[in-house]
Design goal:
It contains three helices and five strands. It is of the alpha/beta class. The chain has a domain of about 70 residues: 2-Layer Sandwich (Nucleotidyltransferase, domain 5). The chain is elongated. The mean pLDDT is about 80.
């Protein structure tokens, strides 16, 4: 009788290595990385030529830029005066025609609604002012 050693087995011709679970893990990782990757398709590239400083038109500095306020109660203001929409419209037209104002600063109360700010923007646009400067916050 032939003796067998303990722990030693021979592989027959019909036995093979089962890779099913390994392939499942690999495919799951592959799907995870495909879905987790941020694919950016909304970017578009185009040639952009920026103007040089010498190309910029000479502008005379505005001595006074009017500041328009939007209060939380829906009223507007220029400087320290409180105005309603019709008064603001008339005041801005006067500033555009007489003082030749081309830009304004718009500030709104934190509790003012978006509709009130939009109304102020439309009044500014109707008056002929095309440039609105965003105020800079200083620390």
């Amino acid at each position: 009788m032939a003796r067998r050693r303990r722990g030693y087995t021979t592989m027959g011709e019909d036995s093979e290595l089962n890779l099913t679970s390994l392939l499942d893990v690999i495919f799951n990782l592959l799907f995870f990385f495909i879905l987790a990757t941020n694919i950016r398709t909304d970017e578009s590239y185009f040639e952009l030529t920026l103007p040089e400083i010498s190309d910029a038109p000479a502008r005379k500095p505005d001595t006074q830029i009017p500041v328009i306020f939007v209060a939380k109660d829906g009223t507007f203001g220029i400087g320290d005066r409180k105005l309603i929409a019709q008064q603001l419209r008339a005041e801005l037209r006067t500033l555009v025609e007489e003082v030749k104002v081309t830009r304004v600063i718009l500030r709104a109360d934190a509790e003012a609604t978006m509709q009130q700010a939009t109304d102020a923007l439309s009044i500014i646009q109707e008056s002929g002012i095309r440039e609105i400067i965003q105020p800079v916050k200083l620390r």
